[in-house]
Recover the amino acids of this structure.
């Protein structure tokens, strides 16, 4: 569907402002009530989910032209889906999808942002969304003795992702994952140098054709491997494989799991046994693309039934964030002796974005850091001494924000703590 | 007509370059109207299906002032330069559209602090962009609670922000016009008036005097919706809350429910054989002072509130409509002590027995009822009842009055609505007029909501319904409906209502001699 | 000339110019300057009033509306300027309608509390009254003055229990506020089941609030509707005595917050003795001596449904609270029975008016504040009384929580012999000097009267300016009680 196909959907916006706030039922105090970092930072209604939709309709109706400011508004959004989920608590309408289509329209019509053009150029040339990447993609796995699934069949594929592969700070997480899989005697492989970007972030930035190209490449690779399951520790990749590839009919029967889902399974199957004590008071940050955006895509084709309230034939289900991955990471953390988990005010489907997504880290690093700092403050106010999450994008962004302030607050991946406990 | 550059620069000097915009795309986001009634059918292009035409007149520029001083500076600048302005907080429904070209918007989003919660003296002081969910949450930690308007807890907690300020909990916690204490008001000319004890002492506890009360000028049963300057802070009465400091809600959206209904809380839905029986039950509930919340609702709206999708709403509504015997109400009983709780329940049962009420089983269920209870305290799901169905909805809102005249008018309007439904111009929503009472039954209000479909004819049907409702309201002595604002309707109702419109114009002239405060939702000096 | 016109309007019997009568209206118990009116006119109807106002506008004659009978206390019924007409409404005594279903009563300005209570009681209703109004006090007058009422749980808004008014503004225009405005006549509204209960509006202004507290400077009210409460079937009153005002206020806060009580107020021993003493001066003095310094009075009631059970559970809940605060509720305190006090306060005061019993006059200093500020304010007033050599044991204190506990009316009653020039001067000086000190400590004089009014209002120039604008709308020629407030 293109943006104009969403016009009727977008017309449903009733300007209620739910898109700006977390689930109202879950508000517990004055603080931490915003769900949308964009409007929380910039305040004009245009920056909210509803405001973006309103602008998109205006664009379709030719009420204004592209300007630099318009692009600034369009791209100062982490595509975190908070607006979408909050809206869908009360409405049957898509919010994130038309916001994404608006970006696709911008790109297709030649209105892009230089920083993102640079990122996409890197992906086209090197299969990596990391413009500054100068190491080998699979360097992180050196010495691990892991199978290359492009050469040997594997039941399970581990996809590291760009942000893990090219960030030395994240290598310990990837290596830790492999350690755990090896300990659990899992038959798995990696793509090595042939691993390429999932394309998910490219899609969210509006570069649809680049995304489709990456999707084709990756699915070809996965199919040829004979693998049944692909696991990844990156929430963006998880979302790309599980949701976007399926959306475009490419996923097939491949089971996509996040590392935490798979590791939780292994723990429950007693293939991994956390017995060592890890003493820390931590909080868990739900990555957007693992949690509220991580539920399976719902294929639907049908039509609205006229003369009624808005119902469809066949009945249409909406992805409302209900079935995202929230519990698996928490189960892992709860299984680690000595670890005390406290929850932040904004969690699960109403989590506050880390700030890195949607191209914001590349186009507006200050905004990305601002968003991260809001989250770090929230973690502190929950009484946590460290933040744990399950996405290299989140971890990287938190780390950058902490380094900027010389803050000693710690950020971990779930895998790191689990590895310590095994 | 773009702003003169020196005016734009002057505004920029006030709020900073990051807090002003005249970008067309941004302005269009503010021109979006949540209800299609904001657009006149004459403005619809010929032959075009509506679905819905959402853009009303644009503001000339949007500003984001951060405090009263910046608000004042903007207002004075506008007065000096013959420019109109309008302010709103969350901007949901009613009055967020300028009357003319060239109006500057003050989006009060950055003015968002809770300034004080005085537990002993039962009031809170808020700025315009504190949303009710925030205020209620903070109050609950302190054993207190507040009124939340029917539009939902994502709207402003200021008792002057909403169109009128009534909400589900009006039975025990009244509404905006009555809960208002002191106000900090930037007048249309840019004076800062601090009413009551605020001006005299710098304290918030009283908004009246010395002598006559300026509260009478700054709002009536409805607010001026931007036509009388800007309200930058206000104190509101708060009430006792015996419930938990945070409600034990669990689950993942949209399926929230409490793990238990807190002790001392009960929710029920009762239907009655007739509106007269319902009215009698409401009267007795009011006089016995047992209800924390008492809201008339048709079964279809209950279904809408519970359902997490339109599909589910259809199925639930069909089921519930078969289980009710007529009009009904939701009642929430809260006991400040176990003894009180038991007493209230017994009295309720007596009243229900006497008035032939029938309990809806689904509401007795702990999980469903508990979820409903919290939605009706936090007011989270009004949108499900109203906008989800078709993306638009509207309503006729008779004023605030005694039960009998308000219901009589509402029922007559409902008949007109039924006629339009029969013609296929409005959707069948299974909803008749629904009334509720406030302040333990002393005051009543009733509404007739309706659902438009995505067609020009439907929108024209709505316009017809509005006109007919206005005619009915003129003949039925039920007070001036809440939907009366703007010159045309004031001029229509004024002559048979003590010529109030003439006094309103004089007030407008006295306090806004330059006509700077946009009057789309108020009145002009003409 | 004026007199002739007035006679044409109201008839000769209703135009009074004898010196004795004029003298009565030229002064009151307050310290305002004595100014003799030109004449007294007694309108019979709204039409009369409208004609009087028209005449006053043509001739720029000040009008001073009066509803209650004497004695007057506040100075608002004494002209500030010469040549004024007293518009005495005390003969307008119609009780227009009592509506049990909607709990509303409507009456003319001359109706007193006794008269109205009798009428509403027949319908099973009661009034939310001020504390012991004098016999001649007009109900409408009390409502317009925003007098505090003794059932704070039913006092949702400071304007309560006033609902609607019909007012003839200083322009001569008739206006009905709230639901009474229309559409339709009052009779039409009644026929439709509408009782003029909604006070707000019509539409985007609530002009009843502008008429209230105005001391007749905006217009003349010809009738008012007010909300009533249901007459209880069972009542259990209690007295709590204590030297510890803090504890008493804590208890008051919870009783009102939890809506356990109907009547609820605090008086000091001096005032309670003045109210309840039966033999003067002996029993007054004895009561003062044996009563605790502070006495809280409250009443628990039951209505139609399970009234005894209601009283029973509320009494038990109340006892738990009093225990936790460390106070003891009793049925009687120092020979005063709670039932007797309840009976007393549910009617207007018998003669002589309780404030006049001790020394023949009383000067009241009253304001609104909040609980937290009361101890300091009361302490300050006692200090100032001592400095003025006024015996503190003679100073009455009355604390009335209002607006469901959001505010507290605080009233100091200084009883004195006005025939004694020394005592008069003492009280006058005390009053003048006290106001600013009290304001600094958190007293809000929301109802300023007399010689201190301008100082109170002028504390906030923008409010004064705004009020002046309001005045210019409703009384552009400033004929309505000029010289009052800031007009």
């Amino acid at each position: 569907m293109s943006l104009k196909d969403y016009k009727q959907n977008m017309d449903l916006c009733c300007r209620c402002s739910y898109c700006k706030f977390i689930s109202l039922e879950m508000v517990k105090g004055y603080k931490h009530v915003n769900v949308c970092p964009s409007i929380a930072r910039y305040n004009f209604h245009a920056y909210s989910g509803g405001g973006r939709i309103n602008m998109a309709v205006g664009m379709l109706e030719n009420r204004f032209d592209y300007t630099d400011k318009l692009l600034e508004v369009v791209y100062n959004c982490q595509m975190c889906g908070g607006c979408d989920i909050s809206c869908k608590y009360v409405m049957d309408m898509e919010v994130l999808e038309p916001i994404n289509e608006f970006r696709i329209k911008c790109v297709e019509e030649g209105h892009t942002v230089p920083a993102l053009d640079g990122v996409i150029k890197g992906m086209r040339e090197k299969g990596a969304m990391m413009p500054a990447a100068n190491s080998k993609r699979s360097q992180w796995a050196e010495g691990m003795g892991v199978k290359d699934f492009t050469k040997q069949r594997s039941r399970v594929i581990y996809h590291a992702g760009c942000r893990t592969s090219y960030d030395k700070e994240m290598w310990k997480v990837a290596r830790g994952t492999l350690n755990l899989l090896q300990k659990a005697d899992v038959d798995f492989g990696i793509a090595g140098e042939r691993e390429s970007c999932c394309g998910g972030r490219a899609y969210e930035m509006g570069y649809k054709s680049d995304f489709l190209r990456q999707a084709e490449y990756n699915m070809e690779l996965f199919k040829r491997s004979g693998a049944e399951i692909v696991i990844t520790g990156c929430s963006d990749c998880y979302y790309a494989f599980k949701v976007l590839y399926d959306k475009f009919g490419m996923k097939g029967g491949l089971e996509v799991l996040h590392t935490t889902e798979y590791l939780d399974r292994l723990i429950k199957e007693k293939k991994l046994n956390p017995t060592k004590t890890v003493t820390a008071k931590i909080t868990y940050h739900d990555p957007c693309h693992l949690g509220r955006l991580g539920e399976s895509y719902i294929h639907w084709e049908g039509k609205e039934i006229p003369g009624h309230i808005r119902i469809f034939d066949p009945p249409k289900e909406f992805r409302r964030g209900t079935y995202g991955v929230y519990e698996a990471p928490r189960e892992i953390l709860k299984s680690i002796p000595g670890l005390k988990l406290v929850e932040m005010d904004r969690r699960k489907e109403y989590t506050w974005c880390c700030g890195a997504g949607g191209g914001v880290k590349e186009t507006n690093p200050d905004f990305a850091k601002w968003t991260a700092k809001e989250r770090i403050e929230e973690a502190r106010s929950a009484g946590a001494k460290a933040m744990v999450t399950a996405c290299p994008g989140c971890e990287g962004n938190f780390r950058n924000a902490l380094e900027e302030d010389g803050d000693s607050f710690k950020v971990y991946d779930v895998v790191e703590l689990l590895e310590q406990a095994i | 007509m773009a702003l003169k550059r020196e005016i734009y620069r002057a505004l920029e000097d006030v709020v900073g370059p990051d807090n002003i915009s005249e970008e067309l795309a941004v302005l269009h986001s503010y021109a979006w109207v949540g209800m299609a009634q904001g657009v006149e059918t004459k403005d619809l292009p010929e032959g075009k299906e509506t679905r819905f035409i959402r853009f009303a007149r644009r503001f000339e520029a949007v500003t984001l002032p951060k405090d009263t001083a910046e608000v004042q500076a903007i207002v004075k600048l506008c007065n000096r330069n013959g420019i109109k302005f309008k302010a709103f907080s969350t901007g949901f429904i009613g009055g967020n559209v300028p009357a003319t070209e060239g109006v500057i918007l003050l989006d009060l989003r950055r003015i968002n602090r809770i300034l004080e919660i005085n537990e002993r003296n039962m009031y809170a002081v808020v700025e315009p962009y504190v949303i009710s969910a925030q205020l209620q949450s903070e109050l609950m930690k302190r054993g207190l609670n507040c009124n939340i308007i029917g539009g939902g807890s994502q709207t402003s907690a200021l008792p002057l922000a909403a169109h009128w300020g009534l909400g589900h909990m009006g039975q025990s916690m009244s509404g905006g016009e009555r809960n208002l204490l002191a106000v900090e008001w930037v007048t249309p000319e840019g004076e800062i008036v601090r009413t009551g004890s605020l001006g005299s002492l710098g304290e918030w506890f009283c908004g009246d005097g010395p002598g006559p009360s300026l509260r009478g000028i700054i709002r009536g049963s409805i607010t001026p919706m931007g036509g009388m300057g800007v309200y930058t802070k206000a104190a509101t009465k708060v009430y006792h809350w015996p419930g938990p400091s945070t409600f034990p809600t669990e689950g993942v959206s949209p399926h929230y429910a409490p793990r238990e209904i807190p002790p001392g809380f009960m929710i029920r839905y009762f239907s009655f054989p007739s509106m007269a029986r319902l009215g009698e039950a409401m009267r007795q509930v009011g006089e016995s002072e047992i209800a924390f919340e008492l809201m008339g609702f048709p079964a279809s709206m209950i279904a809408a509130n519970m359902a997490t999708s339109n599909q589910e709403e259809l199925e639930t509504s069909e089921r519930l409509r078969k289980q009710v015997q007529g009009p009904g109400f939701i009642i929430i009983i809260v006991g400040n002590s176990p003894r009180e709780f038991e007493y209230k329940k017994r009295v309720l049962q007596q009243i229900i027995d006497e008035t032939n009420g029938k309990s809806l089983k689904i509401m007795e269920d702990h999980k469903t009822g508990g979820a409903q209870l919290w939605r009706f305290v936090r007011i989270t799901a009004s949108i499900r009842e109203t906008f989800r169905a078709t993306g638009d909805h509207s309503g006729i809102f008779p004023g605030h009055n005694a039960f009998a005249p308000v219901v009589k008018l509402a029922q007559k309007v409902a008949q007109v609505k039924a006629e339009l439904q029969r013609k296929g111009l409005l959707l069948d929503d299974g909803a008749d007029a629904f009334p509720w009472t406030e302040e333990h039954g002393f005051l009543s209000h009733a509404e007739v909501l309706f659902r438009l479909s995505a067609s020009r004819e439907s929108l024209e049907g709505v316009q017809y319904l509005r006109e007919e409702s206005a005619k009915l309201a003129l003949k039925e002595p039920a007070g001036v409906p809440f939907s009366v604002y703007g010159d045309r309707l004031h001029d229509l109702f004024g002559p048979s209502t003590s010529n109030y419109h003439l006094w309103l114009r004089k007030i407008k002239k006295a306090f806004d001699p330059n006509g700077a405060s946009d009057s789309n939702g108020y009145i002009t000096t003409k | 000339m004026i007199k002739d016109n007035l006679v044409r309007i109201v008839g000769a019997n209703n135009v009074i110019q004898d010196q004795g009568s004029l003298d009565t209206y030229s002064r009151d118990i307050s310290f305002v300057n004595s100014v003799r009116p030109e004449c007294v006119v007694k309108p019979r109807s709204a039409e009369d009033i409208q004609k009087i106002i028209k005449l006053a506008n043509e001739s720029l004659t000040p009008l001073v509306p009066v509803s209650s009978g004497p004695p007057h206390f506040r100075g608002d019924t004494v002209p500030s300027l010469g040549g004024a007409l007293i518009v005495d409404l005390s003969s307008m005594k119609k009780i227009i309608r009592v509506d049990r279903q909607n709990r509303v009563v409507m009456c003319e300005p001359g109706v007193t509390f006794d008269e109205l209570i009798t009428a509403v009681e027949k319908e099973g209703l009661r009034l939310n009254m001020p504390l012991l109004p004098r016999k001649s006090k007009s109900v409408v007058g009390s409502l317009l003055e925003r007098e505090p009422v003794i059932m704070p749980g039913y006092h949702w808004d400071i304007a309560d229990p006033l609902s609607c008014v019909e007012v003839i503004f200083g322009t001569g225009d008739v206006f009905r506020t709230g639901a009474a405005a229309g559409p339709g006549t009052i009779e039409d509204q009644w026929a439709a089941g509408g009782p003029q209960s909604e006070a707000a509006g019509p539409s985007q202004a609530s002009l009843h609030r502008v008429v209230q507290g105005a001391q007749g400077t905006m217009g003349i009210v010809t009738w008012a509707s007010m909300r009533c409460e249901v007459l209880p079937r069972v009542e259990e009153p209690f007295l709590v005595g204590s030297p510890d005002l803090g504890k008493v206020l804590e208890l008051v806060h919870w009783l009102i917050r939890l809506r356990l009580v109907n009547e609820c107020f605090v008086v000091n021993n001096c005032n309670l003795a003045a109210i309840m003493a039966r033999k003067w001066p002996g029993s007054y003095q004895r009561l003062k001596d044996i009563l605790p310094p502070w006495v809280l009075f409250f009443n628990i009631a039951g209505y139609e449904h399970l009234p005894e059970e209601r009283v029973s559970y509320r009494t038990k809940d109340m006892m738990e609270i009093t225990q936790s605060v460390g106070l003891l509720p009793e049925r009687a305190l120092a020979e005063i029975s709670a039932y007797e006090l309840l009976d007393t306060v549910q009617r207007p005061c018998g003669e002589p008016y309780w404030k006049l019993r001790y020394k023949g006059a009383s000067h009241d200093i009253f304001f609104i504040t909040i609980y937290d500020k009361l101890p300091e304010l009361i302490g300050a007033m006692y200090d100032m009384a001592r400095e003025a050599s006024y015996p503190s044991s003679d100073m009455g204190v009355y604390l009335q929580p209002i607006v469901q506990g959001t505010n507290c009316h605080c009233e100091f009653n200084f009883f004195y012999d006005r025939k004694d020039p020394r005592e008069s001067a003492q009280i006058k000086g005390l009053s003048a000097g006290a106001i600013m000190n009290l304001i600094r400590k958190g007293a809000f004089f929301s109802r300023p009267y007399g010689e201190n009014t301008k100082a109170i209002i002028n504390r906030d120039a923008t409010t004064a300016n705004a009020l002046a604008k309001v005045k210019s709308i409703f009384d552009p020629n400033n004929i309505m009680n000029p010289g009052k407030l800031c007009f």
User: Anything to note?
Assistant: Chain C has a mean pLDDT of 96. The two ends of chain C are 27 Å apart (CA to CA). DSSP finds 16 helices and 20 strands in chain C.
